[in-house]
Amino acid sequence: MSSSETVTPFVEGLLHQQVVMVTGAGQPIANAIARRLGRAGARLALVFLPEHEQEAMEFARAVGAVLALACEPSDPQAVGAVVRRVTTELGGVDVLVNASLSREPGRWVDLAAGQWKALLERQLSGTAWFCKEVIRPMMRKRSGRILTLLDAAPGGASRVAAEGLLAMTRALANEVARQGIAVNTLAIHLLAEEVERLAPAQRERLDGDRGPLGRPGSADEIAEAALFLTSSAANLMTGQRLSATGGLW
Amino acid sequence: MSESQAVRQRFQQQAVIITGGSRGIGKAIALAFASEGADVVLNYGSNTEAARQAAAEVEAKGRRCVLVPGSVANPEVAGQLRDAALANFGRIDVLVNNAGISRDGHLMMLQSAAWRETVDVNLYGAIACCQAVIGPMMKQGRGVIINMSSTAGIRGRAGQVPYAATKGALIGLTQTLAGELGPYGIRVNCVAPGFVETEMVAGLMNRPGVREGFIQATPVRRLGTVEDVASATLFLASPESAYVVGDVLRVNGGLVM
């Protein structure tokens, strides 16, 4: 989209009629993002992990998604099939939000080989497959936006994926910028919805970890940042990492 | 070899594992460690002749060298490296995860096999080697792990999505393990070289204008040498960097700051 096409009439219509694909549906963060982008006018194609089918289908009905598809992200063929179905039925993909973020706590050294591999196959390789598959339909329109969520946690398994995704985003942003495709990341930290589920002892340990803002964020606040990065308001941003973490890096 | 390296013996009686060590940066690191007194377990992928040559050069410095063939993408190789170090030298002081490949091309055209190969070697191979040495290093109460990242892992690079993704993930791995293993006396750091003249980048560098372009983009106006990277690696393995933990040491002449 060229600078002259930047129009921000009012926030509700920012994504009017745009086909927005959100992965990780059925989980709080992806749901909040999908809901917010839907309210901004997007036609939603939700993608969910096979194990989240029930929650995802319920959410898809509630939010009025046009499509809701199960997909194992570590399988490149499965990802290709899902993206083809979305482009065929909805006429393309304008926005991809990689919001299938695993937030498993715990130390890396405690993970067995099978565990870290499964995690990275979904988080890192899986995200690469989604990005790869949407580039061609986006290139046809000479416009598109890809947003990948990252965990800003200072350690743990998700940090390995996060740094990989960040470098991948910067590489890809350079590859596709001239085709009108922007690729960015949104770093998030522990959210109120997740804190609620923690045991009291775990919650206490977090007190030093709340950052400058002194409170956990909410999925809805993440969704606002996601709306910005997926809309024409962020036309000049690509290859960037935006932190919606309450001041934590 | 510089004079200061010749007189220093920072790694006497130490055992160092280096993956991807038959050529390029890995070989330079092996020779630098050997020059300063370390015995070496040298892993290599397939070039037996080059590996034998590297081993002979280590031995010419009066040190021992054990060769362990096989791609680190094979999960058994990590255990073989650990066992070779313990059986021959009785210890593992340093692991340098240097083995790396690049399968370049735009993501849109990427074959899944090319991604698979890159991730298996650059990331999963390094992870497997870390896991293999953590036990012995914890028992020793000390150890150093150094992962070879890249400027691509910091800033990305068009045409190298898989390479950048794995090199970035290595930075995340470095920081995660540094936090978890610090209390056990194990330091984990990362080296991020810029453009170093090795066989891996020869194809790129031979394209017209590319070499000159990189030189002009680099403030010190030259490409990196394998010795530049080896010096930085030895610093991170030495007691001089005792308080450097979870860091990414950029060795790129200022190309990416």
UniProtKB/TrEMBL annotation, chain A:
Pfam families: adh_short_C2. InterPro entries: NAD(P)-bd_dom_sf, SDR_fam. It comes from the Bacteria. GO terms for biological process: fatty acid elongation. One of its GO terms (molecular function) is oxidoreductase activity, acting on the CH-OH group of donors, NAD or NADP as acceptor. Belongs to the short-chain dehydrogenases/reductases (SDR) family. PANTHER family: 3-OXOACYL-[ACYL-CARRIER-PROTEIN] REDUCTASE, CHLOROPLASTIC (PTHR42760:SF40), SHORT-CHAIN DEHYDROGENASES/REDUCTASES FAMILY MEMBER (PTHR42760). This is SDR family oxidoreductase. The lineage of its organism: Bacteria, Pseudomonadati, Myxococcota, Myxococcia, Myxococcales.
